[in-house]
Specification:
It is built from 22 helices and 10 strands. It is an alpha/beta fold. A 5-stranded mixed β-sheet has the order 3-4-6-8-9, with helices on one face. It has a 3-stranded mixed β-sheet with strand order 5-7-10. A two-stranded antiparallel sheet has the order 1-2.
Length: 530
């Protein structure tokens, strides 16, 4: 880890500036104390970062859980009761890890993962545009289409048009231009501009702009247009910001329902993020998913015990880490310590950062996730890749993350079924020499019910008076569903004067009376033919 410190330190600073508004904004959208979001960010960085096997993944409070948290706080009768569900949710995640449920993460299609990354990129852009122009938009951190305040993603954009703040828009625009210039030009001129990251420079610039214009009638920025970190008056008031679970609520069945919901949703979001971040990692590291669930469970237990929001691995912070050159988990851990140190030592300074400056950083992160070139690339790959990709994007933009992923997976399954139907999964050789219609069909290594349609179509298309060689010597696994098809075909073959020669490792049989008896199968089972 220490070998990559030169890369990890500047990356951790960028992740810190991305994480800070997200921690506060997600807490606000969740109806929880603002400090709870910072606790989750700190635990996600320091604890989960240290325990995780991911080199580039960053954890913290997740926008996808905001609606669940908001509803649960009300239904459980208070935030302290809700914290019990967070702790229990962490315990359940530990159980998921022990049971090796992380394997689920390997079954998400590549097209859906790419669609998820792109959809999140588009959502970040759409949600941060109001902040960029200084519109007081409380739902900027709510990544669902239908927002908690009753509006939706596009209605807020229209409302913004009549509420643009000149000062916030000006420094936001300057910051965005400087970030692009820094990355495209300056960073290629000297290594100094790689060590000192553009986001750090624009944040400093934003603070200077705020201080120079705070008395200006038109350009002054204040109130909800600024970062709003809680500022304790003394050590006791700082400690007073922590909340602790009311474990007397553990007998409430609803607490367990919320706990399981948190564990399930947080685990799914984490596994999706792990797959996505590994895919865009230039070093192509592979994250151990079961270890990740154990790390997330531990993080949620600790977060819940001291008043923090539920934690997941999150793609916005992870992608910012990757884009900024993070190489090891050191960048994740350092960003957690930066959050901790800053909220203790410099909360007043943090509150001088305009949100439009941080929005400019997030806009660039969003663009890198949803580059136009990716749309063109996926389209060229054909409909089998592009349809699940675009469906996932539309689902995420117009609903939320999990619904969008679910729609993409459903379409992906349909594509697999169509591919299985269209692609026979067996070798078909036709020979009409010597005036006899002879066909050889050779099955693949594994034949499942997915191949039923293709095999049925092929067998039904055989003409009368055919000699069929059916070769299963390479087949290791064969579903009973396929055997039933062969059994029915053998019965009909007699009527069509089709002779069958069955070739297997067990021998050669001419016109087998029963395929089921030959393979010695039990109903609805799968047999090894090797």
């Amino acid at each position: 880890m220490f070998k990559t410190f030169k890369s990890d330190l500047p990356a951790s600073v960028v992740v810190f500036f991305v994480a800070l508004p997200l921690c506060l904004g997600i807490a606000l959208a969740s109806g929880a104390p603002l400090f709870s979001g910072l606790i989750a960010g700190i635990i996600g960085g320091v604890v989960v970062g240290a325990l995780s096997g991911s080199k580039i993944g960053v954890s913290g409070p997740a926008a996808g859980l905001a609606a669940i948290v908001l509803t649960a706080i009300g239904s459980l009768g208070g935030y302290e009761n809700f914290l019990v569900a967070v702790v229990l949710g962490g315990v359940i995640q530990l159980l998921f890890g022990v049971l090796k449920a992380g394997i689920i993460g390997y079954y998400f299609p590549s097209s859906v993962i790419k669609g998820m990354l792109t959809g999140i990129g588009i959502i970040i852009i759409l949600k941060q545009i109001p902040n960029f122009f200084g519109y007081d938009e409380a739902s900027a951190w709510d990544l669902e289409f239908f927002e908690i305040d009753g509006g939706n993603t596009f209605s807020e954009l229209f409302a913004m048009l009549n509420n643009i703040h000149p000062g916030a828009a000006l420094i936001g625009l300057i910051s965005l231009i400087l970030l692009i210039f820094w990355e495209q030009v300056l960073s290629k001129k000297s290594k100094v501009f790689e060590v000192i990251q553009g986001p750090f420079v624009v944040v400093v610039l934003g603070i200077v702009f705020f201080m120079l214009t705070q008395n200006h009638e038109l350009l002054s920025i204040s109130g909800n247009h600024m970062v709003s970190v809680p500022v304790p008056e003394d050590f006791n008031s700082f400690i007073g910001q922590f909340s602790f679970p009311n474990f007397s609520a553990i007998t409430n069945p609803q607490v367990w329902v919320v706990a399981f919901t948190i564990a399930l949703v947080a685990s799914l979001e984490t596994l999706l993020c792990v797959e996505a971040s590994d895919k865009i990692d230039p070093d192509k590291n592979v994250t151990p998913t079961n270890r990740e669930l154990l790390a997330q469970g531990t993080g949620n237990i600790i977060s819940g015990l001291i008043g923090g929001l539920p934690i997941t691995q999150v793609i916005v912070r992870s992608s910012a880490n990757i884009q900024s050159g993070g190489k090891s988990k050191m960048s994740t851990i350092l960003h957690g310590f930066l959050l901790l140190i800053s909220v203790i030592l410099i909360p007043n300074l943090l509150n001088k950062i305009p949100l439009s400056v941080l929005a400019s950083i997030l806009l660039l992160v969003g663009y890198k996730l949803a580059k136009p070139a990716l749309f063109k690339k996926m389209y060229k790959l054909g409909w089998k890749q592009s349809v699940p990709f675009f469906v996932t994007i539309v689902g995420i933009v117009f609903t939320d993350l999990l619904v969008g992923i679910g729609l993409g997976l459903m379409v992906g399954v349909v594509v697999v079924l169509l591919k299985s139907y269209q692609n026979s999964h067996f070798l078909h050789i036709e020979d009409k020499s010597n005036g006899k219609h002879k066909i050889k069909m050779e099955l693949a290594e594994e034949v499942t019910f997915f191949n039923k349609g293709a095999i049925l179509k092929e067998l039904d298309s055989l003409p009368r008076d055919t000699y069929l060689e059916f070769d299963v010597r390479k087949t290791r696994y064969l579903d009973y569903d396929i055997i039933e098809i062969l059994e029915d075909f053998a019965f009909k073959a007699k009527e069509r004067n089709i002779d069958i020669k069955l070739i297997s490792k067990r021998g050669v049989v001419e016109n087998p009376p029963s395929f089921i008896e030959f393979f010695q199968l039990r109903p609805k089972s799968k047999i090894s033919l090797s």
